[in-house]
Design a protein that fits this description.
By secondary structure, the chain is α+β, with helices and mostly antiparallel strands. 24% of the residues lie in helices and 39% in strands. It has helices spanning 36-43, 59-66, 116-131, 146-155; strands at residues 2-3, 6-13, 16-22, 26-30, 76-82, 88-97, 100-107, 136-142, 157-163, 168-173.
């Protein structure tokens, strides 16, 4: 399917998600063994990952978490890859809880500020709205994560709530 310049194929059955989203420069796909080393380089960078939780694990722990059939009910971590080279640029996380889809994202610092996350999220948000009509799409960020706040606002999210326990702001996509 071609949608506003994006080539999107997306299949959902029994809450299993098979995603392949292609944008001008990126592909969103499942993790493969070849992605683990690149993933670990930025996920184990404590300064870069200060706002993230899924970090500093052993390779086998990442393998067990990432190299599984995607299931949006349990949460699915996907690769954002360069369309031409298949280099891992970052990752995207989706989880479905009741009538809400939560979205999270991380970019490798060597690819930051180049618009990759914006590009892939624009396509993902369109498809999520289509596949899950009536669902809220939310993102949680730490209050000091200014770049992420700016990105969410640019994409059409609005501030919704503060979660004291997690020291997080919740943004909802309209």
């Amino acid at each position: 399917m071609v949608l506003w310049g994006y080539n999107i194929s997306y299949k959902i059955s029994n809450d299993r998600v098979s995603i392949m989203i292609e944008t001008v420069r990126c592909i969103l796909r499942s993790f493969e063994e070849k992605d683990l080393d690149s993933f670990m380089i930025y996920r184990d960078n404590n300064e870069w990952m200060k706002y993230q939780g899924f970090k500093n694990l052993a390779k086998d722990e990442y393998r067990k978490a990432l190299l599984v059939p995607p299931n949006i009910e349990n949460g699915v971590q996907l690769v954002i890859a360069d369309k031409n080279t298949d280099e891992l640029l970052g990752d995207l996380y989706l989880i479905k809880k009741e009538n809400t889809i939560e979205i999270g994202y991380t970019i490798n610092p060597t690819h930051a500020q180049k618009g990759y996350i914006t590009e892939i999220l624009e396509a993902v948000l369109i498809k999520l709205k289509e596949c899950f009509p009536g669902y809220k799409i939310i993102a949680e960020i730490e209050k000091d994560n200014i770049p992420s706040r700016k990105l969410l606002l640019k994409l059409g999210f609005v501030y919704d709530d503060w979660i004291e326990e997690w020291q997080s702001e919740v943004y909802i996509y309209l």
